[in-house]
UniProtKB/TrEMBL annotation:
<keyword id="KW-0547">Nucleotide-binding</keyword>
<comment type="similarity">
    <text>Belongs to the protein kinase superfamily. STE Ser/Thr protein kinase family. MAP kinase kinase subfamily.</text>
</comment>
<protein>
    <recommendedName>
        <fullName>mitogen-activated protein kinase kinase</fullName>
        <ecNumber>2.7.12.2</ecNumber>
    </recommendedName>
</protein>
<feature type="binding site">
    <location>
        <position position="94"/>
    </location>
    <ligand>
        <name>ATP</name>
    </ligand>
</feature>
<dbReference type="GO" id="GO:0005524">
    <property type="term" value="F:ATP binding"/>
</dbReference>
<dbReference type="GO" id="GO:0004713">
    <property type="term" value="F:protein tyrosine kinase activity"/>
</dbReference>
<dbReference type="InterPro" id="IPR017441">
    <property type="entry name" value="Protein_kinase_ATP_BS"/>
</dbReference>
<dbReference type="GO" id="GO:0106310">
    <property type="term" value="F:protein serine kinase activity"/>
</dbReference>
<keyword id="KW-0067">ATP-binding</keyword>
<keyword id="KW-0723">Serine/threonine-protein kinase</keyword>
<dbReference type="InterPro" id="IPR011009">
    <property type="entry name" value="Kinase-like_dom_sf"/>
</dbReference>
<dbReference type="GO" id="GO:0004674">
    <property type="term" value="F:protein serine/threonine kinase activity"/>
</dbReference>
<keyword id="KW-0808">Transferase</keyword>
<dbReference type="InterPro" id="IPR000719">
    <property type="entry name" value="Prot_kinase_dom"/>
</dbReference>
<dbReference type="GO" id="GO:0004708">
    <property type="term" value="F:MAP kinase kinase activity"/>
</dbReference>
<keyword id="KW-0418">Kinase</keyword>
<feature type="domain" description="Protein kinase">
    <location>
        <begin position="62"/>
        <end position="316"/>
    </location>
</feature>
């Protein structure tokens, strides 16, 4: 009982911290949004003094269609972007409601922008630019036409290992590229893994997750289910992303999250700390896959394997003949008809 009281006090402290954040001041006027080195205007994005985009992106250059995704503080629409050379590009348009929010919410936006601009990777969703419209910041992003891994898991349930392998490999490539730049994803979960018809897998929403806002609501509980144990109680590093990766792979293989029935943050933390990884791995699968999940789900982060080491697993290179980006995307593209067939059932 004492343990649960201690954990609950952490959540109350977080809520109190949120109340303090709401009183924080920040620089915002009618023409631009400024926060932590990022400046966004009606037609430009500037990061730490460097102008990244200007003039090409603005409300008039976009034609918006239906909603394709929603988050706690944003919604994403399908859009058509007419560029200056009259090229029309299908994009994802993310409308982020941050101007009237807390300092932490604005920091989440800034973290995502910095991650997307500092990491030029084929395995991270591409940012074309951002602009300010009234009280919203709009980000224009690469569109992935097959949607999220979460939606695919819901439709296919347990995946074949031949499908899991190229997905897991490309997730690790994205994590490797982020970690090499000193950036943590912080919110790796199936909903933040996107796929397209070319067999490509890319990460989105890097740097977004926080327990500082709405700590006890269902949205954050859903995110917390993928968080490493140390993220809920103490300081953490990039190996917390590896824990999340292990849970994502587990869910791909089994069609379910191991802690899906837990409905409170307190119970989640207690369950995670008391869980035996060997009990979680009671299902049948290749020993190489089981080893990858096991190496990712150590309670002690120092015992988890980093992304660049997991990529060298024989389960990828020998069992599935996946050795680089091209072989991974080629393997997944071969499997895509199974996914698309399931989507139309």
């Amino acid at each position: 009982m004492t343990r649960r009281i201690d954990i609950l006090s952490l959540n109350i402290d977080a809520i109190n911290a949120e109340a303090e954040e709401l009183n924080c001041s920040y620089h915002s006027d009618e023409e631009c949004f400024r926060h932590e080195g990022v400046t966004i205007g009606a037609d430009f994005l500037r990061l730490e003094g460097e102008t990244l985009t200007r003039g090409e992106l603005a409300p008039g250059s976009l034609r918006l269609d239906h909603i394709i995704g929603k988050g706690a503080f944003s919604e994403v629409r399908l859009g058509l972007w007419t560029r200056k050379n009259d090229e029309v590009l299908t994009v994802a348009v993310k409308d982020f409601r941050v101007i009237s929010g807390s300092s932490e919410r604005r920091s989440m936006l800034v973290r995502e922008l910095k991650a997307l601009t500092k990491v030029q990777s084929d395995h991270i969703i591409r940012l074309y630019g951002a602009y300010l419209e009234e009280t919203h910041v709009t980000m224009v992003l690469e569109y992935m036409n097959l949607g999220s891994l979460d939606a695919i898991i819901q439709q296919t349930k347990a995946m074949k290992e031949a499908m899991v392998a190229p997905i897991a490999y490309q997730i690790l490539l994205g994590l490797r590229d982020l970690h090499e730049k000193g950036i943590m994803h912080r919110d790796l979960k199936p909903a933040n893994v996107l796929l397209n018809s070319d067999g490509e897998v890319k990460l989105c929403d890097a740097g977004m997750a926080s327990l500082g806002e709405h700590t006890l609501n269902s949205t954050v509980l859903g995110t917390a289910k993928y968080m490493a144990p140390e993220r809920l109680t103490k300081s953490y590093g990039r190996l917390s992303d590896i824990w999340s990766f292990g849970l994502v792979v587990y869910e791909c293989v089994t069609g379910r999250h191991p802690f899906s029935k837990i409905d409170s943050l307190v119970d989640l933390l207690v369950t995670v700390e008391e869980s035996d990884v060997n009990e979680l791995l009671s299902f049948e699968c290749h020993s190489g896959l089981k080893e990858i999940i096991e190496c990712s789900l150590h309670a002690d982060p120092e015992q988890r394997m980093p992304a660049n080491i997991l990529l060298k697993s024989p389960w990828f290179s020998i069992t599935h003949k996946i050795e680089n980006t091209k072989t991974a995307s080629d393997h997944l593209r071969i499997m895509l008809p199974l996914i698309e067939k399931q989507q139309h059932l």
